[in-house]
Amino acid sequence: MARRAMRWWVSGAALLVLWGCDPFNTEFEDVEPAERYTASVQVAPNADPGQLRVMTYNVKFGGGRIDFFFDCYEDEAHMTRAEVLGNMEALAAYIRYVDPDVLLLQEIEVESKRSAYVNQVQYLLEHTDLNHGAYASAWKADFVASGGIGRINMGNAILSKYPFEEATRLALPLISEQAGYVQYFYLHRNILRTRIAVPGTDGVWVLNTHTAAFAHDGTKKRQIDIIAAEAERLDATGDRLVLGGDFNALPPGSAQVKDFPDSVCQDEQFKADDYSAETDWMTGLYEAFSPAIPLADYQADNAPFFSHTTDKNGFWNRKLDYLFTNGTFVPGSGITHQGLEGRYPTMPLSDHAPVSVRLELR
Q1: Most-buried pick from 56, 228, 294, 310 (CB within 10 A)?
Q2: Whole-model pTM?
């Protein structure tokens, strides 16, 4: 993977010199409006909700458990349209089963070549009871040469039964150890900040994020600190807030898991993080906000709350996905959907399990 990736980075660098500052349309402003979507047929939500069910889900670009070259497997880079639609229908079925009022999505794609140009945000709006969508791209390029990936547009989304009063993309720092030409083609992480007009409230802030997976230079911690600062800024206004996403970090008190087998990638640039140096990076969020899964519950018996694995033949083996609030979650309502419900297994759908919780509004 590393040799292939280096070839397209070097080729991209040469093209940048020849064609100008942003020939592949990969760059973003520090603050810019998020993209908005609506379902073509909308389902009337509860006009006086006392609670909101909120769910976060890294959906792995509708790729299910297909082995891709960028996961260091074989040479597969693209899905057929039938594969994408099959995976998206399975995801939509699970979302309908949980029936969230607000859904935070990571690694969702909009008209990317590798996912057969399906607009996955719009697809989920059309196949669930969610009415409104906001999207913030994290990896966008008109053309990526590596593996024939071609056009790519992957990022974070928030889907809601209720309309948005605001939807904004806030940039997070790039990985500082990367050369400029690598940063140009690499992921541009962000916070998707929305304010949702929920009846009976003054509006609910919902923040969705997905931090760096392969940074070895402290970039992930800087991103988490910025995310926490933005959440604390909104908390200081007195408004109700929900923050969630894939933080690529373990809860406080997790075991030191050095050399944990999480990836077949051997190159250090792309080898999955062993998390051995960062088990306290989430401490500030746990101290400032209420988590969907109480820390004491996780530390007492963490296996029921694991939400990630790269081993599709194994079982969930670590927690990376979170929901926090400055309000009140219904006690005991936090669920890590590991697929044990029987009817709807989640292991085949993504390398992450969704997490849901009910938020009190009164």
Answers
A1: 56
A2: 0.90
